[in-house]
Write a structure and sequence with these properties.
The chain is mainly β. It contains three helices and eleven strands; from the N terminus they run ααββββββββαβββ. It binds fe (ii) ion. The site of fe (ii) ion has 4 residues, from strand 7.
Length: 222
């Protein structure tokens, strides 16, 4: 897979390892300063948490003060918030919400009979750093029913607020058969690929059974 800025995912991960995170050398940043396409919008959906949980940190796999870890595949999602000109957007606010591994939201409107996970809240608030970077640790969400005969593919909801722009979108995972029939993803058209990430192997400092997703988010002006 190639990232949307033309760099390979392996290259990005190499940078992440070398920098102890996502630090990028100035020269690489210069290479990245090129035209990007705005990330496509997606619906807010019915499960945006109107009442925000107290635990909003970047590790969604545990709840503060409660021993134990959420069930499911641990994933680390990381990337940058950029402008279409390729400039990083520092100080952007990201809200993230998602279903647990069983496909259930911690939301009073979710009627899915799949179990709640007492160790998973499914919500976080993040702020990009000076280089526009974000990252969080979570569980790969499960698919869930969106009607009597339709399942939504695994996805993570994002609301990204920069200095000028607000974007509401969803991130999907490569190789999910339900992607092919999801009206929200398919409705994007040819640009849908920019909402889909492949899960790759962990970098050495991460859990050996974790997976990594690298996804850049592009705002119009930042
Ligand atoms: Fe959803």
């Amino acid at each position: 897979m190639r990232a949307q800025n033309g760099m390979s995912r392996r290259h990005l991960l190499g940078l992440a390892v070398a920098g102890g995170g996502l630090a990028m050398a100035g020269g690489v940043r210069a290479v990245c300063a090129q035209a990007f396409r705005r990330t496509p919008d997606q619906i807010l959906g019915p499960f945006y948490p109107v009442v925000k949980p107290l635990d909003q940190d970047a590790d969604l796999t545990t709840i503060a003060g409660k021993p134990g870890r959420a069930e499911g595949q641990v994933i680390h999602v990381m990337g940058r918030v950029l402008t279409v000109a390729g400039h990083p957007v520092p100080g952007a606010r990201l809200e993230i919400w998602q279903a647990n591994t069983h496909g259930r939201y911690t939301h009073p409107s979710d009627t899915n009979p799949a179990p709640l996970d007492p160790h998973f809240e499914g919500f976080a608030v993040l702020t990009t750093d000076a280089e526009g970077r974000y990252r969080f640790k979570t569980i790969k969400p499960g698919a869930y029913p969106a009607g009597p005969d339709r399942m939504r593919p695994p996805h993570i909801h994002f609301e990204v607020t920069g200095q000028s722009n607000r974007l509401v979108t969803q991130l999907y995972f490569a190789g999910e058969p339900l992607n092919d029939t999801d009206p929200f993803l398919q409705g994007v058209g040819p640009n849908k690929e920019r909402l889909i990430v492949a899960l790759g192997p962990p970098t050495p400092e991460l859990e050996p059974d974790a997976r990594v997703a690298v996804w850049d988010i592009v705002l119009e002006q930042g």
